[in-house]
Predict the 3D structure of the following.
Amino acid sequence: MKKKNIWKFLFITLLSINILFLFILGTMLFLAVDQEPIPKTNVSTANMSEFLIRTEKQDLNALINHYIEKEGLDGPIHYRVLLTDEVELYGEVQVFSQSMYLKMTFEPEALENGDLILRQKSLSLGDVKLPVTYILKFIRDSYKLPEWVIIQPNDKQIYVSLQQMKLKSGIQVRAEEFSLVDDRIAMKMFVPVD
């Protein structure tokens, strides 16, 4: 009879540990995520010459992926960005020594201040269903992103503060139009003249 009680005790202990583990994991997944505020700075363009640049998705695709590779903006997910009728992020994640394919799509919008906002549209991570906020938080915490790319998991969006992007010689860039469906992308470039 003692053997029966030991197995019963061990089973209840193991069941309790599993329930506790699932509770902690669930709490971590669904807790509110701390978030960086959107910058309110408007950088002055006085004493600068203004140029309007128009481009197409294909050229911007090459530039973005070159920048990701050149700047070493890599982490646990090897990813690439593709501009189609929306902004698509493709990556491969190692989970328990298995490769899982990640695809996130965003709808871009050029703001009046020249910055861009990417609103999350869809997400797939293999067959696993995870909250978008968790995936965005994971990407934010796992990558060396430029300071002008602000991931906001609670709002399910990425804020691209082009005003804060630092380019050589003090050049500044602002988004004027960003319509991927119509393949109309226009940026203003401000070059110091002093």
About this structure: The helical segments are 2-30, 57-70, 132-142. The radius of gyration is 22 Å.
